[in-house]
Write a structure and sequence with these properties.
Length: about 140
């Protein structure tokens, strides 16, 4: 699908969670084989289903993908991005409280990162990394 065709479609809502430890480290996941942008790093999450609110989708996706139960999440930022395969509206949440240790339930690699150093990172995420670094620094200073 061309980028122009993607723009003419309604964006797909996606819930994205940033698990942030007390020291400011965040969890990044690598997209598995067979998905667009396979091998790219992203913050975990997934598509919001019909009739589902964004926070409910975030909680469901984290349980399905990582075996983690999100206890609290605060909205952080929203971003629209047009990929060659889809026009997405990403709803980012900061999650500081959860139960369970992340597990690779869908075969994806994941890594805790202080300063995000994994590569390549999904294009829609790249512009947020500087703001996230400031948020992490605030968390460490608190």
């Amino acid at each position: 699908m061309s980028e122009i065709a993607s723009l003419n479609k309604r964006p797909i809502d996606v819930a994205v969670g940033i698990l942030m430890q007390a020291d400011g480290d965040v969890l990044m996941a690598q997209r598995p084989s067979g998905k667009p942008y396979e091998g790219y790093w992203e913050f975990p999450g997934g598509k919001v289903e019909a009739g589902e609110d964004v926070l409910a989708a975030l909680k469901r996706e984290f349980l399905e993908e990582l075996g983690v139960r999100v206890l609290e999440a605060e909205p952080w930022v929203g971003v629209e991005h047009v990929y060659p395969h889809a026009h997405v509206r990403l709803h980012f949440y900061i999650c500081r409280r959860w139960e369970g240790e992340p597990q690779s339930l869908e075969g994806q690699a994941f890594a805790w990162q202080g300063k995000v150093a994994v590569e390549p990172v999904l294009p829609a995420t790249i512009p947020l990394l500087e703001d996230l670094g400031l948020l992490q620094a605030d968390r460490i200073a608190a």
